[in-house]
Amino acid sequence: MSTLTELLAEGRRERVYSGAAWSVGHAHGPLDRGWTGSRSWDGPPLDGDDVWDLASVTKPIAGLAVMALAERGALGLDDTVGTYLPGYRGGDKADLTVRQLLTHTSGIPGQVPLYRDHPTRAALLDAVRLLPLTAAPGTRVQYSSQGFIILGLVAEAATGQPLDELVERLVCAPLGMRDTVFRPDAGRRARAVATEDCPWRRRLVVGEVHDENAVVLGGVGAHAGLFSTLADMERLGAALAAGGRDLLRPGTLALMTAPHTDGLALRRALAWQGRDPVDSPAGEVFGPDSYGHTGFTGTSLWVDPAARRYAVLLTNRVHPARTGEGITALRRAFHDIAARMTVDAAEDRHGTGQAGGRAGTRDGA
């Protein structure tokens, strides 16, 4: 039994989640992967083909699509919101840039439960447009799902294509991520892991996006809404660890994943989190240039480009309620073990032991 298996089985025993799946590996695939627990507390055991609500891990995947559009000249990082969205012209968000939306430096507040008072898509989008800025643009990192909602609208307006189709065409299809979708169909919903017993919906949520603002938007947003499987997230992690050439040119990915906010309190890249020096969800061992993202439902993807390594963690820590805080320490412990595992594997490849031989074979495949 691996150390990660023990850690994540203990998370279930502590009722942090009913189930967890993980993969730690490199550009050629996993070094350690597995799953433990069940799709809900009274549901079937995980089987590795389970469908997970990625929550805010949607943001960097949508961000990859936006960067692909920028690379193709469909939009520019310093283009303004008003350029693409006529309804925003003359308002306080007209001059916000795509870059500011990607780095959460737009000044648009986040974590605003607009769904409570705006129950239709049109009403909620109008509320986003009218939401007052709470910081001068470019002066503060202020995590904003509402900013990413606008980012998705910009991408759609720039191309004339729906966001879900852009993500499929520019990110999922090139990597063969066939189970990474907005609005899962009946077959995928049947494999979905339960999230919250939602007070607003008055039922257990399974196979429907957990984020309530995304529900009102119809299940598709640049901030939340994607579902995926362990195998698909491994594909993404391995592709990014290899340099992302199937998605973006090397220079574009380097720009996307470099820190853009080091003069401010939190380290942000373009749609990615950087590793903050204190209290990073990636723990203490991943390299200083590593990047990734977490999701409210208990998901995360982290990549260390220098070591060419990735770590995927998928849990349903909001099941049956979102109040638990156990995922915070567990996630850091997971990443520290994962980072040490990949360092050890790299060292083994230069040795003569059996483990080194296996890892070396995979690296040379």
From TrEMBL:
Gene3D superfamilies reported for this sequence: DD-peptidase/beta-lactamase superfamily
**InterPro entries this protein is in?**
Beta-lactam-related, Beta-lactam/transpept-like, Diverse_Enzym_Activities
Keywords attached to this entry: Hydrolase
Listed Pfam families: Beta-lactamase (PF00144)
- Lineage of the organism: Bacteria, Bacillati, Actinomycetota, Actinomycetes, Kitasatosporales
Which residues does UniProt assign to the signal peptide?
A: none
Coiled-coil spans are none
Domain Beta-lactamase-related, by residue range, is 6-328
* Membrane recorded as keyword: no
Which protein are we looking at? Beta-lactamase family protein
Q: Where is this region: Disordered?
A: 345-365
